[in-house]
């Protein structure tokens, strides 16, 4: 049996993580959402091994309460998947959600992870946080989001350095360009931003074949996570386990 916490679990990629991880009835999955009452897709799963918890990742107090999952896991947690994020700031503004939220959620669950057997923390990043990709594609889209994800990659690296001796595996992963059109995750703003991104894709990723499904993205991410080792802790890679972002 393994235990997992997934943030941002109400829809899209986060929901797919919950679906795939809870498909094994031996796993315990704790799905963290901002509004439990509105998490209709999670409730619809109706799986005994899924527990829905309400907490905003920018609220350390709420996360501390959520971390009381220890009562159901003998004070242990094996995996933390930091999926919660937002891409709703198209301009050059201060974006704390995509970086500080990960720090808060990681800190909240570290005491449990220290007692776990896997000690693995997967954090969702983006190809837009990669300097070389941005320059190669001359990509102007999502400046605040991109800066936040680049900072997030450094956050992951710092955690990796600090906790490597304790057997932790931290990694930042780009999920690919995922089609979440059926999950109410992408509004008109996101569509327009992708149009801006797509203008740079032929330059930065000439072999890009198009969107992938949440199912395929999560399956590949979990394959990478499961094979990642302490010696590789702190890496920033794609869902393919390398620097091929798309």
TrEMBL record:
The superkingdom of the source organism is: Eukaryota
Alphabetized CDD domains for the sequence? carb_red_sniffer_like_SDR_c
Q: Which residues form a coiled coil?
A: none
| Pfam families per record | adh_short
Mind listing the GO molecular function terms for this protein? oxidoreductase activity, acting on the CH-OH group of donors, NAD or NADP as acceptor
Q: Which UniProt keywords apply?
A: NADP
Q: What is this protein called?
A: Uncharacterized protein
């Amino acid at each position: 049996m393994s235990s997992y916490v997934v943030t941002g679990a109400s829809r899209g990629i986060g929901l797919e993580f919950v679906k795939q991880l809870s498909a094994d009835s031996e796993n315990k999955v704790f799905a963290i959402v901002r509004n439990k009452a509105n998490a209709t897709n999670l409730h619809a799963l109706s799986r005994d091994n899924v527990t829905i918890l309400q907490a905003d990742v920018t609220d350390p107090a709420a996360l501390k309460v959520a971390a009381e999952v220890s009562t159901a896991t003998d004070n242990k947690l094996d995996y933390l998947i930091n999926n919660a994020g937002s891409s709703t700031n198209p301009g050059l503004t201060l974006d704390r959600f995509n970086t500080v939220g990960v720090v808060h959620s990681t800190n909240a669950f570290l005491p449990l992870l220290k007692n776990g057997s896997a000690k693995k923390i997967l954090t969702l990043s983006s190809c837009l946080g990669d300097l070389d990709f941005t320059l190669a594609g001359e990509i102007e889209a999502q400046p605040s989001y991109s800066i936040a994800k680049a900072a997030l990659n450094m956050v992951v690296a710092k955690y990796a350095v600090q906790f490597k001796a304790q057997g932790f595996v931290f990694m930042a992963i780009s999920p690919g360009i995922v089609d979440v059109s059926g999950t109410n995750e992408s509004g008109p703003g996101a569509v327009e931003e992708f149009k801006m991104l797509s203008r740079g894709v032929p330059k930065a990723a000439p072999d890009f074949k198009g969107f992938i499904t949440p199912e395929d993205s999560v399956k590949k991410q979990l394959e990478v996570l499961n094979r990642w080792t302490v010696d590789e802790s702190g890496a920033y890679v794609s869902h393919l386990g390398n620097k091929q972002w798309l």
